[in-house]
User: Fold this.
Amino acid sequence: MLNRRSFIAQSSLAVAGVALTRLPIVTASVAPKKIIIIGAGMAGLSAGYELTQLGHDITILEARARPGGRVHTLREPFDDGLYAEAGAARIPDDHNLTLKYVKLFNLPLEPMYPSRLSTLRFEEGTMRKVGMDGFTDILGKYFGSELDGSPSRWSKIKGGNDLLPKAFSAHLADKIHYESPVVKIDQDQRSVTVTFLKKAKQETISGDQLLCALPFSLLRNIELPANFPANKRKAISEVRYDSVSRVYLQVKKRSWEEKGLSGFAFTKEAVEVWQPTWSQPGPRGILMTYARPGEAERIAALKPDERISSTLTQLDQWFTGVRDNYEKGTTKVWMEDEWSRGAWAFAGVGNLMLFANPEGRIHFAGEHLSFNASWIQGALDSSARAIKMIHEAPETRAANSWTGLTGFTR
Assistant:
């Protein structure tokens, strides 16, 4: 069966000779531009950082009150400084751009998976103990070779993956405007103009170039220029975003470790079970489930307390003592997230080609426009292509039409 990841891999090979698969190198020296970026996820943050380094004047508009988008580490409601990933969790050893920025910001890495204790894997009608390589092997069989391979090829950022977007945002500082959702984009021969909300009041900002680093699931709700082409409108409205649901259980004691279990498992419903706290100080711990399309929708249909109670019942049958030690829980359903409306998407080969070129002054980036869709790497490599095009775009200057904003230093 050709699953989504296998299709992406085959598609990338089919067009390996085109510029989309190469990381662009910025070589031209140009006059500074005023650049608006919509979205402070990984694509928007990396573009903002690199374009600032190139001398451009950057403004990032972000609907959320935090940076990172779908790179989001949950620290609440957990105790003792424990944390777990709500979004992007794994970093493969061949994701060069992701690792480049991790190194640039001096962020420490640690293994994604523990090297000791046993993992549970549903096989031949029952749960059986296997090594961690048995866990990654079954992931590869179900979800494609991107998740296969030695457990040692996977890492995470020690302290939480949100430290990466936080590092970007620290360098960008007052260039990011949070709680500023965009409602309209327009452009003419001289500039591009964005209308956004700030405390329920409409404000506008104009610039030379614009990077839209939003998921299409959000862009489809933004008013676009009247002459925006029909084929791109159609793609924006039709790209399907996958559902992911995660449930988290905090326990006062990691009782499973006493029985030789790591807290990782793969169920008959193809749900991953993780113990994200295996490398965090104890005695408390967190078990979490990671459900993809199919099972994710079933979980999303439940009320939050039902998601927790059903997960508690499920995990207690394999990790005895979870119910007795349970303290609190929470959930993350990405389809319910107001500023994502889905976990990830692959726009398709044709749409990658279509959106690789700007529409006038409007450029596009995001994991959905990459062969590394659903990964941090996808957001970063799509951004790298846009950075080059924005930097080298014609130098027609925008009019000074910054209205409704306070605190801007021009």
Remarks:
- The chain is about 30% helix and 25% strand.
